[in-house]
Amino acid sequence: MSALSSLALRPSSGLRGLLAGASASSSSSTEAFTSPVPTVRQLTPPSQLSEAELIDGCLAGSRLMQKYLYERFSGRMMAVCLRYAQTTFEAEDVLQEGFITVFRNLGSFRRECPLEFWIRRIMVNAALRQHRRNAPLVAVSEGEYPEELAGEEFTLANYGFEDLLAIVQELAPRYRMVFNLFAIEGYGHKEIGEMLGISEGTSKSQYSRARAILKSKIERLDAQSKHGHFRT
C-alpha cells in the first residue's frame, strides 16, 4: 500500500493547484492561521495532529493543513477508488475529484462521525459519477457463469490485495459497482437501485451474478495456487 500513499498527481490537476501553496516552514503555516482558530503547536508531528486540528486548519485556509489531511487519508481512499475503477488512471481521477469535493465542502462536515467515514462516502459518490460518465463507453466480457450461487458463501480473506483488486476490476462495471456498494459499503439493494437508477430486483440479481463470477475466478486462483502459479 506504500505505492498508494505516495501517489503523484498530474501537474494539471485541480487538487495539485489547491495544495500548491503548502509549505513545511513554520512561517508559512503561521501566516495561514487566523483567530479564533486554535493554534497548532509548531513541533507537533503531522501524524499526531487531531482531526479537529486538521479540520480547523483547513477551514482557516492553511495549505499546510490541507496537505497533511490529504497525506493522512489519500492512501486509504486510493484503495477505495481502485475497487470501483477499472484502471489506476481512472482511480486517480476519482481520487482527485473526491478530494476537491472534500476541501470545498469541509465547512459542512458536522463532525458527527469520523472524518474518514465522511471522506469515504465522498469518494464513493465520486466513483458513482465516474461510473455514470463511463458506463456507456465500457464493455467487459462476462464469460459463462452460473446465474445463482444458491446461498453459497466464499471468503476473500486468503488473497492478497493485488489479486483481489485484479479480479474485482475484471467485473463488468455494473456488477463491480453493485458488489462494492452492497458487500463492502453496506448499502441495501433499494438504496443501490436509487443510486444507480435500477430496480431493487435488478440490484439483487446483479449482485448475485457478481458473486458467481468472483467465485468462479477464485476457484481458478485456487487451482493455480495448487500448481505453484499463484502470484506472491
Question: Could you describe the 3D structure shown?
Answer:
- The chain has eleven helices and no strands.
- The chain is globular, with a radius of gyration of 21 Å.
- With 232 residues, it is an all-alpha fold.
- 61% of the residues lie in helices and 0% in strands.
- α5 (63-84) crosses α7 and α9 (173-184) packs across α11.
- The protein has helices at residues 2-5, 14-19, 26-32, 51-59, 63-84, 88-105, 115-134, 161-169, 173-184, 189-196, 200-226.
Fold blueprint:
Layout: H1 2-5, H2 14-19, H3 26-32, H4 51-59, H5 63-84, H6 88-105, H7 115-134, H8 161-169, H9 173-184, H10 189-196, H11 200-226
User: What composes the largest sheet?
Assistant: none
| Large-scale geometry | globular
Report the radius of gyration as a whole number of Å. Answer: 21 Å
Structural class: mainly alpha
Low-confidence stretches: 1-12, 23-35, 137-152
